[in-house]
Specification:
The complex is a heterodimer of chains A (95) and B (485).
Chain A: H1 5-15, H2 21-38, H3 73-78, E1 83-84, E2 87-88
Antiparallel strand pairs in A: 1-2
Chain B: H1 9-17, H2 23-36, E1 43-46, H3 48-60, E2 72-76, H4 103-110, E3 114-119, H5 153-160, E4 167-171, H6 177-182, E5 186-189, E6 209-214, H7 217-227, E7 257-261, H8 271-286, E8 290-294, H9 302-317, H10 335-346, H11 349-362, H12 367-388, E9 394-398, H13 414-418, H14 425-430, E10 434-441, E11 447-454, H15 459-473
Parallel strand pairs in B: 2-3, 7-8, 7-9
Antiparallel strand pairs in B: 1-3, 4-6, 5-6, 5-10, 9-11, 10-11
């Protein structure tokens, strides 16, 4: 399996990370060496193995759906890169 | 009184309780040393004036019942601290001020400790040398231009250089144990679910654990008993009976069975690591432990598994950094363009690479071949440990395949950097506790560590083994203060 420039550009779109031509070329090399290394897993037959999704053998606890840390809207909005008193502001999405 | 900053946490607590020194004197001593040590670049954010204020307040109304009475300490900048900038070593969180506190740090302040500041780390904890931080690499106090390890590199450097009496790091694939090993300090990665992940900037949620880094095993046990609490704010926090680890600490490990996994004798392992391991086995025998040869047959598959699972989880966790609600934002022509530019300019090279690996292995058509495959191999790796623990109480290995390397030595080859975590990664995949203790030096005099891996929730046992071995090893860290002009 080799990863080519086209795949890198596709992944970059999915990741929402813009890459220029130069960066994409470097990524082709890096990703191929990493995936060569990852391919080692194919030596193993895992047909009858259950996937391990979490090592914490615990069932999720239910809780009451209630607000516990209210009234910090000001503090939350303060971290916004472009604040407008009560809202998060983004570039126009509706024409 | 010898120099305050060189005392262990245990001695510092005793001196404060005996009223031989005040919290203010102690805090001032660590601040002074921190100010003289800026060339190490261990801090991202200093919170010194506020720390001094808190120390004065403590002295006015001291509570000596607390476990960390007026003790100043710095923490890895991956823990959210209420009102104090938290960056995760990234440009994208360069200006983020959390309106809440992580559970682990809250537990520490509840016992009377005082925040000195936030310590440098690899960006989003992705790295093994602290070279991926947006805030620059960290110097190891061991030698000039030597990496302190990573990702908790600032924590390791600050601790070994006596800028903080104790600290906390996080460990996803070795990020506590490897820097501890590189700097001649002690580092514990607790059992998954032992310490709450609430308020820790997430990297790979099924692997991340916070843990103590300290100058000796006793200090480590004390901090572990403070930070390990059940927390309903973390859905994977586990409600089990936690010990008072420092009170129950004993050097009596007679009859304990310690496993030596043959698969950890990897090709090309330096002779000095081999020697260290052999010496470690002798120390364990001297302590009365019984040595048992064991096999962990899937060891070689741990790193490739990790480099699928961790980036996959990271790509999902880091989707939240979109320039909308907090953090860095880049200007874009439209919403999508803003996202893409923000993430391209806000994340560093290694983080982008891992997000892209993760996105790829989770993408349509590749999920089964990579992600599902890795989860199955992860099961085999965990089964190896389950099998081994039918025969032994703990496992002894080297912490790293080499001593610390020079800054810049491995930055151009991601795979060679990843190989650094070969002995630490299996533990995270299996969710087990493991401790690294300093055990010797290489030809350059750089520290080397031994790792003791335990059964899940058996922190007490590995702390005891580490405590007993520490007495035999008598390691002394040589710090020359070369960075202080």
């Amino acid at each position: 399996m080799t990863i080519n420039l086209k795949t890198i550009k596709h992944i970059s779109k999915l990741s929402r990370i813009s890459v220029n031509e130069e960066k994409a070329k470097k990524l082709v090399g890096d990703m191929n060496s990493i995936f060569d290394f990852i391919e080692k897993l194919n030596e193993l037959d895992t047909n009858n193995i259950e996937p391990l999704t979490s090592v914490a053998e615990t069932t999720l606890k239910l809780r009451v759906d209630e607000v516990k840390s209210g009234n910090i809207r000001g503090q939350i909005l303060k971290n916004s890169p472009d604040e407008n008193e009560d809202f998060f502001v983004v570039p126009r999405v509706v024409e | 009184m010898s120099d305050i900053t060189s005392l262990t946490l245990t001695d510092l607590v005793k001196n404060i309780k005996d009223k031989k020194i005040s919290s203010e004197e102690t805090t001032k001593a660590f601040i002074d040393r921190g100010e003289k040590s800026r060339d190490l670049n261990a801090y991202i954010t200093e919170d010194f004036s506020s720390a001094l204020e808190k120390a004065k307040n403590f002295d006015q109304k001291p509570n000596f019942e607390l476990k960390l009475p007026g003790i100043p300490m710095a923490v890895k900048d991956l823990f959210c601290t209420n009102g104090v900038k938290t960056t995760a070593g990234s440009k994208i969180l360069n200006n983020f001020i959390p309106p809440y506190e992580s559970t682990v740090t809250q537990n520490i302040w509840n016992e009377g400790a005082i925040l000195l500041g936030k310590l440098n780390c690899d960006e989003f904890a992705m790295g093994s040398s602290n070279e991926t931080s947006f805030f620059g690499n960290v110097q190891s106090p061991i030698d000039k231009d030597l990496v302190p390890g990573g990702s908790s590199g600032g924590s390791a450097s600050a601790l070994a250089a006596n800028l903080t009496p104790i600290t906390i790091g996080t460990d996803t694939g070795g990020s506590i144990r490897q820097p501890a090993s590189f700097t001649g300090t002690v580092g514990l990665k607790p059992t998954y679910g032992s310490c709450s992940r609430y308020g820790i900037v997430a990297f790979a949620s099924s692997l991340d654990q916070a843990g103590p880094m300290s100058k000796n095993v006793k200090d480590c046990a004390l901090l572990q008993e403070i930070i390990s609490t059940y927390d309903e704010k973390d859905s994977t926090s586990i409600d089990f009976k936690r010990n008072e680890y420092s009170k129950e600490l004993t050097n009596n490990i007679k009859g304990k069975k310690i496993g030596i996994p043959k698969e950890y004798r990897v090709d090309g392992m330096p002779k000095e690591i081999e020697t260290l391991w052999t010496k470690g086995i002798e120390y364990a025998k001297d302590c009365g432990a019984e040595i048992v040869e064991i096999s962990l047959p899937h060891t070689n598959y741990a790193l490739p598994t990790y480099y699928i699972v961790a980036p996959a989880e990271a790509s999902s966790n880091l989707a939240r950094y979109d320039g909308v609600k907090y953090g860095f934002r880049s200007k874009g022509e439209n919403l999508i363009d803003m996202y893409e530019k923000t993430r391209s300019e806000g994340f560093g090279e290694e983080v982008q690479r891992r997000i892209m690996i993760g996105t790829y292995v989770l993408s349509s058509g590749y999920y089964d071949a990579y992600y599902l495959k890795a989860q199955k191999v992860r099961k085999l790796i965990k089964n190896d440990f389950d099998e081994a623990y039918k025969k032994v109480d703990a496992i002894l290995t080297p912490s790293t395949p080499s001593a610390a390397f020079k800054i810049g030595e491995k930055t151009n080859d991601p795979v060679s950097m990843y190989l650094n975590d070969i002995f630490t990664v299996p533990v995270n995949l299996a969710g087990l506790p493991a401790i690294s203790i300093p055990a010797g030096v290489d030809a350059n005099g750089y520290p080397l560590g031994l790792q003791i891996i335990g059964k899940a929730f058996d922190e007490q046992n590995i702390l005891n083994i580490a405590y007993a071995m520490e007495e035999k090893i008598e390691f002394k860290n040589k710090i020359t203060d070369w960075w202080i002009k």
